[in-house]
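Schema walk-through. Below, the input block comes first and the output block second. Nothing else is stored per chain. Lengths vary across the set, and this one has 289 residues.
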Amino acid sequence: MGDVEVVESHEAQVGPLTVRRALPRRVHRTVGAWCFADHMGPAAIDPDTALIGPHPHIGLQTVTWLVEGELLHRDSLGSEQVLKPGELNLMTAGHGVAHAEESTGSYRGDLHALQLWVAQPSMTRDRPPAFEHHDDLPRATYGDADVTVLVGTLDGHSSSARHDSELLGAELALHSGTATVPLDTAFEHAVIALSGAVAVGDTVLTPGRWGFLAPGRDELAISAQGPSRAMLLGGVPFGEDIVMWWNFVGRTREEIAAADRAWMAQDERFGPVSSALPRIPSPQLPWLR
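--- output ---
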């Protein structure tokens, strides 16, 4: 079965929220095509909390999942979508898109979420942007775990959400007990603890510590002593070298710099977002400092 490699997340600040950034890390820049994972909260918000104002993306998909709370998504395609737990927002940036994540104006309580990015392969990364919302995701039960498939296919349970490469994203909601979840042996996987504590073999994972599983496994044996949640990410190792900076995923520094210039010039490449929150300026490119 192989060992579980434990990776420590690091803290980062996103708007008013402190997050546990699981990806990218120096030891693992990607897991499959998954290239970014921010675990935020639980954090108390109210109807007027200013969250994340308009900002740009290229070459990636955002996958937004709530454990608790509500968010309002707005983007430069004209999308306006409230997201609740058990639902999925997926935005494909392609050549360029901008969006904001806001308070709903009515929700007061804890916000607990996972923001994921998927690197788009060369065949789709320069295509037009798109947005989709899914409120009827496939679910299955394995032992003491209720599993929701966000993206991809798990043991014949397939999400209708778009994916541009072979990958999997699934939430595992565990009761006290154990579960054995089938895996694709061609995939590498990450198990990110969201709440409580989960054990993969003798390795215990809690929020801020996640486990990397190399390709070759055909199942995941996971257990919990009490109610716990984890995100299972997987995919075929991504075969393209990427350059990530700020909110952009490209292949060269020149591409990143061109996207940065377009955003700062308010170029039509990204378009406006109908948001009352202030537009977020890009930081200085690190190789120009």
